[in-house]
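Q: I have 450 residues here and want to know how they pack in 3D. Can you give me a structure?
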Amino acid sequence: MKKQKNYLYFLFLFTSFILMSCADQFDFPTPKNSFEEKDRTPAKVSISKLDNQWKLFVNDHEFNVKGVAINNALKKTADFGANVVRTYGFNEQVSPILFDEAFDEGLYINAGLYINREKEGFDYNNEIAVANQFEKRKQEIDKFKDHPALLFWSVGNEAEANYTNTKLWTAINDIAKYIHEVDPNHLVTTTLAGAGIDKIKKVKELAPDLDFITINSYAGGITNVVPNLITAGWDKPYMIGEYGPIGTWELPANRILDWGALIEETSTEKASEYSRLYKEYIVKNQNNGCIGSFVFLWGHQTHGDVLTWYGLFDKNEYTFPGVDEMQYVWTGTYPTNRAPIIKDRNDVLMNGRTADDNIKVNKESMNSASVKATDPDGDALSYLWMIMKEKTSSSDGSLPEGITGLIADNTKTEITFKAPLESGAYRLIVFVKDDANKKVASGVIPFYVN
């Protein structure tokens, strides 16, 4: 993912994490089975090719990474079936707490080591700067290499974005080489923004000390991952570092309105995509070298072009339908109570029109909106509508409070509202909630005020 995750390292510097345990229904063990309080020895992680298929092993047991790219303080991560948490960098205050909580709750960590980006002004020709970066990462490695929650080291997240200097890969390989010198128990990877053939070739050539490669890829590009790895001659395993519905940067023309607004799927439509991607491009590609994946985003967004695009939880820690689907693909069973359903964009209307209809209204005009939603368990539903100006956010970067004074009663299935006084692009958002079970669905309509 391009724009959103340039800042995710900093999210982890200021975010606390709450991690819960789970029982796994697959044949391979969950971390909980090996996290005995009396045994805080490091996990022994290895990869072998058996019957022409790459296999990952943790403490000599076959292991399949069911991972989450997590932010915000979210409960019950492992209860849904996840077994690994992905981070993007270290912080002296946050990281020790996170590692210990992961150990206590039976979760492993894919530990990100932050690598500076050329596009942010870092010069890989500057030997002193590169050496200083190496020393900082070395200190982090030395501090956490023996922690029992550690599973992998990931040297950089999309550090190659818009890069030109191939010395980046040498710097990454130097860190990987150091890890292998001091840490015989854990594997090392780097994470790329998409499966570009040329950069995969460069990784193979210039970073041979990496044990596998990790690729962030969403619905718009995930079909290219395996073909591109084959074309590039990659002969090691790979992992999907982030996946989810089509990226805001990948949208086809028919999903972009004439003033530039992006048409968003309902949370139910997104849930289907999460399930489809996992089944078709992760499970089915185990024979092609895929050893695991990380779903994006296990929390609510605090960066991005559209702040409701990827979060699988809302700001109150209610879960969207995508969480139900992830539990199903990870464990084979749905939660006992499931999220409300907004089937598709035809079930959210503004002035009788859908999000795809390029809706434009006049300043302070009166308008109407409606939503059609159901609950799989027959639970009572509540409704919350809001209007926000496009590209605005709260002080922490998350979804802002709605503009006040526009909607007559924002708790109904059908509402009337006055268009904002200021011209420009806006988004009308509805949240349909099962408050008793902390479940939620959402639908969004972009509109323009003339």
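Q: Anything worth noting?
A: The chain is about 20% helix and 25% strand. The longest strand covers residues 424-434.
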